[in-house]
Amino acid sequence: MILYVLKQNKNSESASYQKYFAYPVIEETIELDGLAAHMSNHNTPFSKGAIKGMLTDMVSCIKELLLEGKNVKIADLAIFSLGIKNAKGGASSADDFSVSKNIKGVKLRARATGDLTATSLNLEATLKKASATTKPVTTSDGVETTEP
């Protein structure tokens, strides 16, 4: 079940000014330890420690392969790749281009694949408006709120 809160667009420059939009509530962030523990409880012969070791190595290897200019596809999850954040305006010519002037950085990209595509998630997801809560919750945009 995906809980959501409503937020009003307060940007007067926007075409959607004063309209309401739903944002998912993030109740918890599961780290590698928690994921390993969760996976070990799914009828696997592997312990939490063994799974965590494999996942830790996987993360390290994905980073290494990405930095070698390769994409990494994990079926039914995502294709991981690197992108380049270009500076605004660009270079006026190829000779005028320099990494220090024209590239702001590198970004990680993940494109959903297989069972994790938007189409399959739309078919399986259920949504429910979050009720008023006394503890702050974090929405998908990283904002803490107590609003329903």
Overall geometry: flat
Helix percentage: 25-40%
Total number of strands? 8
Average pLDDT, to the nearest integer?
89
Radius of gyration, taken over Cα atoms and rounded to an integer in Å: 21 Å
Quaternary structure of the protein: single chain
Number of helices: 4
| SS content category | alpha+beta
Structure description:
The chain has 148 residues and is of the alpha+beta class. It contains 4 helices and 8 strands. It has a 5-stranded mixed beta sheet with strand order 6-1-2-7-8, with no helix packed on it. It has a 3-stranded antiparallel beta sheet with strand order 3-4-5. Strand 7 and strand 8 (144-145) form a beta hairpin. It starts with a strand and ends with a strand.
Structure in a nutshell:
With 148 residues, the protein is α+β, with helices and mostly antiparallel strands. It has helices spanning 32-40, 48-67, 99-102, 118-124; strands at residues 2-8, 20-26, 72-74, 78-86, 103-112, 127-129, 137-139, 144-145. The chain has a 5-stranded mixed β-sheet with strand order 6-1-2-7-8, with no helix packed on it. A 3-stranded antiparallel β-sheet has the order 3-4-5.
Helix and strand arrangement:
Elements: E1 2-8, E2 20-26, H1 32-40, H2 48-67, E3 72-74, E4 78-86, H3 99-102, E5 103-112, H4 118-124, E6 127-129, E7 137-139, E8 144-145
Characteristics:
single chain, 148 residues, three-stranded antiparallel sheet, five-stranded mixed sheet, 30% strand
